[in-house]
Write a structure and sequence with these properties.
- It is built from 11 helices and no strands.
- The chain is an all-alpha fold.
- The protein has one domain: Orthogonal Bundle (MetI-like fold).
- α2 packs across α11 (231-271) and α8 (172-201) packs antiparallel against α11 (231-271).
- The longest helix has 41 residues, at 231-271.
């Protein structure tokens, strides 16, 4: 029996989506405002995107953010995948409870405490704050999210596939790269995208661990917003929204392609 939506359900969904996305739509629209005043519409114009392109400080901050995000997300994905393998494959080992707590603690730890503790660590180790320390800090807290995502996929992974490959003479490490990794690849890619997005969005931890020449884009936006919001900031935020949306779309298409290929292989196997 087909269930029909009641007017109350429709109104609730519309209000919910409006609450979530209407501010973003307003921000995107006002990024094309010809007026210098954010709240006064002066006509359609892409002039602020040109102003943004000529602002060298924002371009430098964007480059730092992309470098930190790519490096930290890549390292966090490797470490998070290894941690997920340990949690799923090695069920009984001494210190498992401590290891699990250390993995999950940054997920619930306030960012202020994480940033302050990392700052004290870097000061104690006499490390100059900059690109290296920001990257280390982002690896620290994004690795945990990657671990959770990959672990959820490994729990449902059929280990008989690995065992069959090893019975045919494939070494364990080769069986992982040729059998396990292609199967769990959508989860690994999703973990990388999540880590990159979290790094791209971080303000608090980067503020504690950054130094001269390592100003990230969120820090730059926050410093300029404190002096007043301009349409140039709206244009910058619109570009960030487009980049994140494109990344999510690509990840969804890759995941869908993987699922279609897996379903096709399963039908071929059943046909045999």
């Amino acid at each position: 029996m087909e269930k029909r939506w009641s007017p109350l359900n429709i109104v609730s969904v519309v209000l919910g989506f409006a609450f979530l996305y209407l501010p973003i739509v307003v921000l995107i629209v006002y990024s094309f405002n010809a007026s210098r005043l954010v709240t006064v519409w002066g006509g359609f114009s892409p002039v602020w995107y040109g102003e943004l392109w000529r602002d060298q400080s924002i371009l430098d901050a964007a480059l730092v953010t992309l470098r930190v995000g790519i490096v930290s997300a890549s390292v966090a994905t490797i470490l998070g995948t290894l941690a997920a393998l340990v949690l799923v494959r090695f069920v009984k080992f001494r210190g498992r409870l401590l290891f699990t707590g250390m993995i999950y603690a940054p997920l619930v730890m306030p960012e202020v405490i994480t940033g302050l503790s990392l700052l004290l660590l870097f000061v104690t180790m006499d490390l100059d704050r900059g690109f290296f320390t920001v990257t280390l800090a982002h690896i620290t807290f994004t690795m945990c999210f990657v671990t959770v995502v990959v672990q959820s996929r490994l729990v449902s992974f059929d280990r008989r596939l690995e065992e069959a490959a090893q019975d045919l003479g494939c070494p364990p490490w080769k069986a992982f790269f040729l059998v396990t990794l292609p199967v769990i690849w959508p989860a690994v890619a999703a973990g990388w995208m999540l880590a990159f997005t979290l790094s791209l969005d971080d303000l608090v931890i980067a503020s504690f661990t950054s130094g001269p020449g390592a100003t990230t884009l969120p820090m730059k936006i926050y410093s300029q917003v404190r002096l007043g919001v301009t349409p140039k900031i709206n244009a910058l935020c619109t570009i960030l929204i487009a980049i994140v949306s494109l990344g999510v779309l690509i990840a969804a298409l890759v995941n869908k392609r993987q699922l279609v290929a897996a379903a096709r292989d399963e039908r071929l196997a059943e046909g045999r």
